[in-house]
């Protein structure tokens, strides 16, 4: 029986289990990446493991999120990360070198290898034919310690592309079309493997746009073959030696097949406030636009920005529009500068931002009240931009450029017959001077810990009885941005759990933290896809810190469910969804004999003390997860089994 590409890479990394859908497996990890907003926690956790040097082939620590230095906090975190990397054998990508996913694609992603990253858009590197998975920081810490990564073998979906994209239609529209069809939970438990004749014409940056946004489907990852395009890109990055060809067998089997005829696609746009609210641009056309943001880890490549510069060259953006440009990396930044494209963007009226996440995560550039903002990014969850009533639309650089010129939502096909041509450069500008190598004398390196770096909160083993109030009852698709917001105010507290916990659920209930502390914890009830979006483990650490021991929801997003387990919080699901309807905020709940029931792998009964009733919940935990929970989380579990 022929193998698909996912099976081939998993097979060469399989440590435990069988490669059948939904089987528990463990794979070895070749590379890891962290960014500063999740990295500080990941490294504090790695430190607890007591291992002198990382055991991975390559680990890179990036600084790209917490770049506004309005106080000492972010700069302190950067110093901690730099000294930590030097001591423990990790490459350190300095602030200014670029956004983790773009830099990793340029300099490190390698066909056939595995990458685990503490950021949900790690699958970006799947464009290079590698298995790249987003996870919580603790999972990444454990992988740096040489342990395999555990997951349920996902189903493999073949996305068969045929034909070629028409003028002004871009790879962003391919993934927006998939989001339109499958929604933000359509990819949970799945890997999307791209194939078909239409793949051949897509360059690596175009593939990365798709793989990156695959995270919004809830997918485990997205994977492309390694072919001529891969070789061409690696050659241009002076990394030809990293290339191997990788294709599925001709008779490979897939669990599902999706077909997309590229000729039929048109420019698309995701409307506020979910990446799957996709419609043709022409249907949203005419709305007044006040802000356009081009860049982020999506669509910030050299080719993306060159094409925007060519569209804007010699023109002026609309007087009502604020346009920002974020080059994805120093490589991109310097190349557009040397080519003169940067000057074209500046003359057109663009505001140039540093190579960092910036507006994408609300680190500046919050739009004006109720304004329509067109962004080439990957997330438009309400309020993420920093303005509570934001109207964020997601679209390609072509659409963004057209909107910046006209000041209204505009189908880029109105700009002319064809977009300007931007070929792949034969050579990218290679300068790795902002990637620091680890110290050859690690014992001499002292780790700098400013006052913002607080010790890791710990937790004892799981209680046998959990009792408390339903502190919050929520609907479907609660994102980790709802649970722990990011943005300029909260992000600097990522290495300080007591302080960040004060922001827990603040956008949904400003008194949540006070209530949880007074009542010493309680329960949170959620709907479908609870915890979608970011990999931030603070969305589990902060609940743990305030004493929450169980969440009850209809279903969970993959990374958040793992994070809950990692920090000893039970991710329970309703057996009968009517029980979700019955339960009310403020109800007193009680779960008894938890340890015995889990040890016997049985379901749990929740007594609703207020209503005088009881209902059953399932946990769906495997044996390893049960043991982790009983131990009070992954760190305790790992130390016990060491
Ligand atoms: C995001 O896009 O939400 C982030 C910020 O990059 C997160 C990571 C984080 O919260 O630090 C992600 O995608 O995992
Ligand atoms: Fe940064 Fe935004 Fe990409 Fe997250 S999605 S890594 S915040 S640019």
How is the secondary structure organized here?
Elements: H1 5-11, E1 14-16, E2 24-27, E3 31-34, H2 36-49, E4 58-62, H3 72-88, E5 91-93, H4 100-107, E6 114-117, E7 131-134, H5 137-144, E8 149-152, E9 155-162, H6 171-182, E10 190-195, H7 204-213, E11 221-223, H8 228-236, E12 256-261, E13 268-270, E14 278-280, H9 281-284, E15 291-294, H10 302-312, E16 322-325, H11 330-338, H12 341-348, E17 351-352, E18 372-375, E19 391-394, H13 397-406, E20 435-436, E21 466-473, H14 480-483, H15 487-490, H16 497-501, H17 512-518, E22 522-525, H18 538-545, E23 548-553, H19 558-566, E24 570-574, H20 577-582, E25 588-591, H21 594-599, E26 604-608, E27 613-618, H22 623-631, H23 634-641
Parallel strand pairs: 3-4, 3-6, 4-5, 6-7, 9-10, 9-12, 10-11, 15-16, 15-18, 16-17, 18-19, 21-22, 22-23, 23-24
Antiparallel strand pairs: 1-2, 2-8, 5-20, 13-14, 21-25, 24-27, 25-26, 26-27
The structure holds alpha-methylisocitric acid and iron/sulfur cluster.
């Amino acid at each position: 029986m022929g193998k698909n590409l996912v099976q081939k890479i998993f097979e060469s990394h399989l440590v435990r289990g069988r490669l059948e859908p939904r089987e528990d497996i463990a794979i070895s990890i070749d590379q890891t990446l962290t960014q500063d907003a999740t990295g500080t926690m990941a490294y504090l956790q790695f430190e607890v493991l007591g291992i002198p040097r990382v055991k991975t082939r390559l680990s890179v620590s990036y600084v790209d999120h917490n770049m506004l230095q309005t106080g000492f906090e972010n700069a302190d975190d950067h110093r901690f990360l730099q000294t930590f990397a030097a001591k423990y054998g990790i490459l350190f990508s300095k602030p200014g070198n670029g956004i983790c996913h773009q830099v990793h694609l340029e300099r490190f992603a390698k066909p056939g290898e595995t990458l685990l990253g503490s950021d949900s858009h790690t699958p970006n590197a799947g464009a290079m034919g590698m298995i790249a998975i987003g996870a919580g920081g603790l999972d990444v810490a454990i992988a740096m310690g040489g342990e395999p990564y555990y997951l349920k073998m996902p189903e493999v979906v073949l996305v068969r592309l045929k034909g070629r994209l028409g003028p002004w239609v871009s790879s962003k529209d391919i993934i927006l079309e998939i989001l339109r069809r499958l929604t933000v939970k359509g990819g949970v438990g799945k890997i999307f493997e791209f194939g078909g004749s239409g793949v051949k014409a897509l360059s690596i940056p175009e593939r990365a746009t798709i793989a990156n946004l695959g995270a919004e489907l809830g997918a485990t990852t997205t994977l492309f073959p390694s072919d001529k395009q891969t070789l061409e890109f690696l050659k241009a990055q002076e990394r030809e030696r990293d290339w191997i060809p990788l294709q599925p067998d001709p008779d490979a089997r897939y669990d599902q097949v999706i077909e997309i005829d590229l000729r039929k696609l048109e420019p698309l746009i995701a409307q506020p406030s979910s990446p799957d609210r996709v419609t043709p641009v022409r249907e949203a056309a005419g709305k007044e636009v006040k802000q356009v943001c081009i860049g982020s880890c999506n669509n910030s490549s050299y080719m993306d920005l060159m094409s925007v510069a060519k569209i804007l060259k010699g023109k002026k953006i609309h007087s009502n529009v604020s346009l920002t440009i974020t080059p994805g990396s120093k490589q991109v930044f310097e190349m557009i500068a040397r080519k003169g494209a940067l000057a074209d963007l500046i003359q057109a009226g663009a505001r140039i931002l540093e190579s960092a996440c910036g507006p994408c995560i609300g680190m500046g550039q919050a739009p004006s009240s109720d304004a329509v903002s067109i962004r080439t990014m990957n997330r438009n969850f309400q309020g993420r931009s920093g303005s509570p009533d934001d109207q964020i639309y997601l679209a390609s650089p072509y659409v963004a450029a057209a909107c910046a010129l006209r000041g209204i939502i505009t189908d880029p096909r109105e700009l002319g017959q064809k977009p300007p041509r931007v070929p792949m450069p034969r050579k990218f500008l290679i300068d790795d001077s902002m990637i620091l190598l680890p110290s050859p004398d690690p014992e001499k390196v002292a780790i700098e810990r400013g006052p913002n770096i607080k010790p890791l909160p710990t937790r004892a083993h799981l209680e046998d009885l959990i009792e408390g109030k339903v502190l919050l009852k929520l609907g479907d698709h609660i994102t980790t941005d709802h649970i722990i917001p990011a943005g300029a105010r909260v992000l600097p507290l990522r290495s300080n759990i007591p302080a960040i916990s004060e922001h827990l659920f603040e956008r949904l209930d400003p008194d949540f933290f006070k209530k949880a502390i007074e009542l010493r914890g309680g329960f949170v009830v959620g709907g479908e896809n609870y915890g979608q979006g970011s990999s931030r483990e603070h969305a589990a650490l902060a609940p743990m810190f305030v004493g929450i021991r169980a969440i009850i929801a209809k279903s969970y997003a993959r990374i958040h469910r793992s994070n809950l387990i990692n920090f000893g919080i039970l991710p329970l699901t309703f057996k009968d969804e009517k029980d979700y309807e019955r339960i009310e905020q403020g109800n007193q709940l009680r779960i008894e004999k938890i340890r015995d029931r889990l040890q016997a792998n049985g379901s749990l009964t929740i007594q609703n003390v207020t209503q005088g009733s009881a209902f059953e919940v399932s946990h769906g935990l495997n044996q390893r997860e049960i043991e982790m929970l009983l131990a009070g989380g992954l760190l305790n579990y790992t130390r016990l089994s060491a």
